[in-house]
Amino acid sequence: MSALPSRRQPEELIDLSVSRRCHVVGVGGPGMSPLASLLAARGHQVTGSDMRDSEVTEILRTEGIAVSLGHSAEAVRDVDVVTFSTAIPASNVELVSAGELGIPVRHRSGLLASLCSITNSIGVAGTHGKTTTTALLTHILVTAGRDPSCIVGGQVAGMAVGARHGKGSAFVLECDESDGTLDVLTLENLIVTNIDVDHLDYFGSFEQVQLCFVDAAKRTSGLVVTNADDPSSRIVIDVLQGQKTLRTFGHAASATVRIDAVTPVKDGTQVVLEIDDRSVTCMSPLRGEHNAMNIAAALAMATGLGVDVDTACTAVTSFSGVARRFTERGSFNEALLIDDYAHLPAEIEAAIAAASSHPSRTGRTIAVFQPNRYHRIAAMADTYADCFRAADVVVVTDVYASGTAFIEGVTGELVVNAIRASHPAAHIEWAPTRQDIVKFVAATIQPGDVCISMGCGDIETFPDDLQTAVK
Asked: Where in this chain does the record put each Mur ligase C-terminal domain (predicted)?
């Protein structure tokens, strides 16, 4: 394989072992708000700016963070470091002013790298499952008395903005590969949940996606946990075998944490595992084979770090999950409504399988999907052809931009056409607008059905829209 292309490069670390005055540009964003929250909790003086008030900015204010609306050169005067996300352009007045004043400016990844350098960092990376695995691993470590800090990219009970500050040395963080964050983190321990095709606009090829995870694992100084079932993750195992402390998880006979059985039950899932030659049974409120894999990944890391197996399984039982990860959202016409963040083919296939095995399902599985990002659909529309096979009815709406530029001719209908080309008999509906989806599902859904709506955009309001529209 060729070397990694020129992507994000490491920045000089900021010494965060002493109190700093930190200014966070775009502080209300999903990646920046937990960083600001954790910095403040660690004793740093934090200010932030955003274009609008939100529930998140109000929470940050209650945590002692001074949030101003709009961007101005004055906002960065007298601070020690300014941090920003990929969404903020280089022309932003605060970044420009900081540069003129000689104030260090760091991408979000640079501040995370600085935090990793003074903590016992445990990164959770991978294409699918990293948010749930990060939150679950944190919950296990809390239960075990380790009192970790955490940054996670989702809404989790007890973490108002996706951050937790603990007094222990462990720092669990979800590591995003899409903007180069994973490229610059030097971690003490690392989980790679799996490796799949995504973010080709950044990486250029799947080979480079794989190499990003391999490179991160090589830089890891301690324990590496990876997927024994995923052929694309095999490269991590092959490269690190004999060089690193390596633990694996999955159904494979060779896995350090082996899944022996996954059984849907009334209140969730029963997972039987073999952990270091000991058989254990964990009950989880989460559903689906994919969540059994997330559980196994978290257990592989936790037990590898010395957490007692029984303590870890007890924690699994009490972990309620992450918002928008197979969240039951009430019913309509005596049919169950489920909301899920799934937006890539493997995630969609897993979510539909979980919905189809739900004990309340006596009828059909109806899958509603909102494609995400124009460049992703332009590059990957054909890869969605087979992931809806287990659904009885499929409804596809238009692309949610997520801040990406419109591409002429790229609509959700590309996904519809891909499915129809591979499965001409499939019951699939093209419903470009929210009104179209609501109208079709309201007329189609029957008692005993399970309707799962999926995507990482505003499709999360669909269950509410459906229930409200017919009242």
From this structure: 324-457
